[in-house]
């Protein structure tokens, strides 16, 4: 499992995790597109925005390996702002390649790109 050096481990001052410490011996947690409803807590929306900002700062629109990025946090953006960068895509692989869809990310989180 690739560890992304310099990537923040969590949202400062919170319990929202951005990375994991070690690989799960049973395999990576499956990435699924989670539905974001309008009534989500402001802290959850802040965590999504901060995670997307960290992804954009670290990788830009270039493809990147999933590695030690937290599956739960990725799943809130997966299928919309973060998309598969390879075909076929294995959602249960630490080596899976992803990329930030800049157009959709700018539309959903304009504050991150301003």
Describe it for me?
The protein is an alpha+beta fold and 114 residues long. It is built from 3 helices and 3 strands. The chain has helices at 42-59, 71-75, 102-108; strands at residues 64-65, 82-84, 97-100. The radius of gyration is 13 Å and the shape is globular.
Shape: globular
Indicate the radius of gyration in whole angstroms.
13 Å
List low-pLDDT spans.
Answer: none
Mean pLDDT: 93
Q: Could you give a short account of the major beta sheet?
A: 3 strands, antiparallel
Strand order of the largest sheet: 1-3-2
Taking the alpha carbons of the first and last residues, their distance comes to: 33 Å
**Could you tell me the number of beta strands?**
3
Give the helix tally. Answer: 3
Strand content: 5-15%
Which structural category do the helix and sheet elements fall into? alpha+beta
Order of helices and strands: HEHEEH
Helix content: 25-40%
Please write out the topology.
Layout: H1 42-59, E1 64-65, H2 71-75, E2 82-84, E3 97-100, H3 102-108
Antiparallel strand pairs: 1-3, 2-3
